[in-house]
Amino acid sequence: MDPKGQRVKLNDGHFIPVLGFGTFAPPEVPKSEALEVTKFAIEVGFRHIDSAHLYQNEEQVGQAIRSKIADGTVKREDVFYTSKLWSTSLRPELVRPALEKSLNNLQLDYVDLYIIHFPVALKPGEALFPKDENGKPIFDSVDLCRTWEALEKCKDAGLTKSIGVSNFNHKQLEKILNKPRLKYKPVCNQVECHPYLNQSKLLDFCKSHDIVLVAYGALGSQRLKEWVNPNLPFLLEDPVLSAIAKKHKQTPAVVALRYQIQRGVVVLAKSYNKKRIKENIQVFDFELTPEDMKAIDGLNSSIRYNELLLGVGHPEYPFFEEY
Ligand SMILES: NC(=O)c1ccc[n+]([C@@H]2O[C@H](COP(=O)([O-])OP(=O)(O)OC[C@H]3O[C@@H](n4cnc5c(N)ncnc54)[C@H](OP(=O)(O)O)[C@@H]3O)[C@@H](O)[C@H]2O)c1
């Protein structure tokens, strides 16, 4: 098999490629770039594409996937596409319409994976971040088990092959796993994960339940001003990662990606730069030694770039739990 297509089996029998292309870019980046970079990522070998309703680029990402199918580069079944249910649509009756909206933007018949983006429910409506007159987020109250049942129905209807969650802590995962009449377990939990926040406890928990951990922010996140404390250290400037990279004639970025794959984590890499998109595929060209892995494990320091502070104050805010 082409190593670039390396995949792992999900608990529902489908397969997910271990390296995914992250498509989120801040609003000031023209949407047309999402089209160009997604096409390029598929051309160089990415077979797993990650997006979301929130990113407001599903039209372009869908167009990129369809154009690479049309020109014969890939077949639909070769591409694994993830979309996410945004927080303003967590009420069960809003789940299917939200997925149908994504499919309509994508112009695809199904997605491979549909995940709850963030367990904090926000007031339904057009605004992605509904705020009151004081600028405070307007929360909604939704039982996530009911949301989950609506996702199960979307899978049964064939609108998505697999269903999962994102930004859930282990207690929230347990709530779904222990739900009476659970039909499908989450196949994955997509969370921030990198050498400074290696999520080892959550990873062990996920592995023990046959749930795949998908890493975002694996390169140290995009450090967007509105979301990330600028005083936090730059992951890709870490001396330990740099020394290991030098030894393997690779870059710290590729080492950070390889680290995840070797510990059984599916990893996303966002880049809107062609040179770096191509570089990230080199993750399949080398192997870290057990000593390298141990040294990278030693970097763990509970640094979370994306605290998603807008959710603080909601009972489902996930990051006050240890894991
Ligand atoms: N579920 C969630 O709540 C959630 C949250 C955040 C992200 N995500 C998903 O995860 C994806 C990845 O996470 P992320 O967006 O935080 O970014 P990331 O993958 O950690 O990447 C961070 C930055 O690294 C740079 N980069 C990429 N390859 C590089 C290389 N080889 N050398 C040096 N720098 C490199 C990129 O800049 P350039 O573009 O300039 O190359 C990028 O902005 C997102 O795009 C999105 O799909 C999900």
From TrEMBL:
Pfam family for this entry, one: Aldo_ket_red
Keywords associated with the record: NADP, Oxidoreductase
NADP-dependent oxidoreductase domain mapped to chain residues: 19-300
GO molecular function: oxidoreductase activity
Family to which this protein belongs: Belongs to the aldo/keto reductase family.
Annotated PANTHER family: ALDO/KETO REDUCTASE (PTHR11732)
Name of the protein described by the UniProt record: NADP-dependent oxidoreductase domain-containing protein
Name of encoding gene: LOC102187204
